[in-house]
Specification:
The protein is of the alpha+beta class and 359 residues long. 21% of the residues lie in helices and 27% in strands. It is globular and about 55 Å long.
């Protein structure tokens, strides 16, 4: 774990609010204004040194490629205050590497990994008073993103880019917290296509799936569960997260698909599932198999793990929680991961990155 030698001063924070003034328990998963964000610009073949700013708005040319041709990608990770009072982030180098992959796939200039880490450290340190205290269940969400700035009318990549990172304190992604959610299988809308960009974190994937998510919520479900676009037979992922299920013979199964975003949380849970002897496997998961699973869940940075109580598929309903409680395997996986993130269990895999020592 490491920290940068030079850090911005908090003395210039633009409001007098302290941690004691903030109501951490009432936080939803939404945007809360903080003091600073950090911005780096790629122009004339190189990145600048970046600047901290309190401005929440961006000056954009009306013909920039991020607005017209979808040259935009983003990441999501979290910072926590652990039991020792340190501020730590969960596996940030994995996010940095994934952003490089996303940028390259849509022909953008990727920020170097060390710049990604520096930006995270700068913006979290400048907004320390917004890091929720240990024990509140809340966290500081970190949103790095890259956009194409250069004006283009023809369809081609921009020459200039901006890499921005902002933060926001957040509560649970789903209002129910760590309680079973209900999903509905979506067949009329495709989130991403094979050989497309479903395996990278670009905004277009979320825009494509938004109709399904909104319709699912109107029907009383937490979100939609997408099938693959080619066969309309295999489970891909839910709107905001990867999907996994537990078989009757004790396997942790998660879908294998070229149109699924590789989740850092899922990757971590697979490691923990191996510890528990669950024989994790990635393979195509036929939607009909859902009837035979004993537990199911959604996992990602925002939700961490959201146990699934039921999945509705056409005229059938597959129930995994009859008493309204999470299953034992989902519960143990969640508790193990959270214990590592919060410093309640040893970090033997080196997943946690120290941003700021105990004050």
């Amino acid at each position: 774990m490491s920290t940068l030698a030079t850090r911005p001063s908090l003395a210039s924070a633009n409001t007098p609010v302290t941690k004691a003034d903030l109501d951490w328990q009432s936080l939803s998963f939404g945007y809360t204004k903080t003091d600073y964000n950090v911005r780096y610009t790629f122009r004339e073949g190189q990145w600048d040194r970046g600047v901290l700013t309190s401005d929440e708005y961006l000056p954009l040319h009306m013909a920039c490629t991020c607005l017209h041709y979808g040259q935009e990608c983003f990441e999501g990770l979290k910072a926590f205050e652990n039991r020792r009072g340190e501020v730590v982030a969960f596996r940030p180098f994995e996010n940095a590497r994934r952003m490089v992959v996303s940028c390259r796939k849509i022909l953008m200039q990727p920020p170097p990994e060390e710049m990604f880490i520096e930006a995270m450290e700068r913006v979290v340190t400048a907004n320390l008073r917004f890091v929720p205290p240990y024990g509140t269940g809340a966290s500081l969400y970190i949103r790095p993103f890259v956009i194409g700035l250069g004006p283009q009318v023809g369809v081609k990549p921009a020459a200039d880019y901006m890499f921005i990172t902002f933060v926001s304190p957040v509560g649970p992604y789903f209002k129910t917290g760590f309680a079973p959610i209900d999903l509905i299988v979506e067949e009329a809308v495709d989130r991403a296509a094979p050989l497309g960009v479903g395996d990278v974190k670009v905004g277009g994937n979320y825009a494509a799936g938004m109709r399904a998510s909104v319709n699912a919520k109107k029907k009383g479900f937490a979100d939609a569960l997408f099938l693959d676009a080619k066969h309309k037979r295999y489970v891909d992922e839910s709107g905001p997260a990867n999907f996994f299920a537990i078989t009757r013979d004790g396997q942790y199964v998660t879908p294998a698909s070229d149109s699924i975003l590789p989740s850092i949380t899922n990757k971590s849970i697979i490691t923990l599932a191996e510890e528990m002897g669950l024989r994790p496997t990635r393979r195509p998961v036929d939607v009909e198999e859902l009837a035979d699973m004993t537990e199911a869940g959604c996992c990602g940075t925002a939700a961490i793990i959201s146990p699934v109580g039921s999945i509705t598929y056409r005229d059938r309903k597959f129930v995994y929680s009859k008493d309204g409680r999470p299953g034992p395997i989902c519960t143990e996986l969640y508790q193990r991961l959270r214990a590592i993130q919060l410093g309640d269990a040893p970090d033997k895999y080196g997943w946690m990155y120290l941003i700021h020592p105990k004050a």
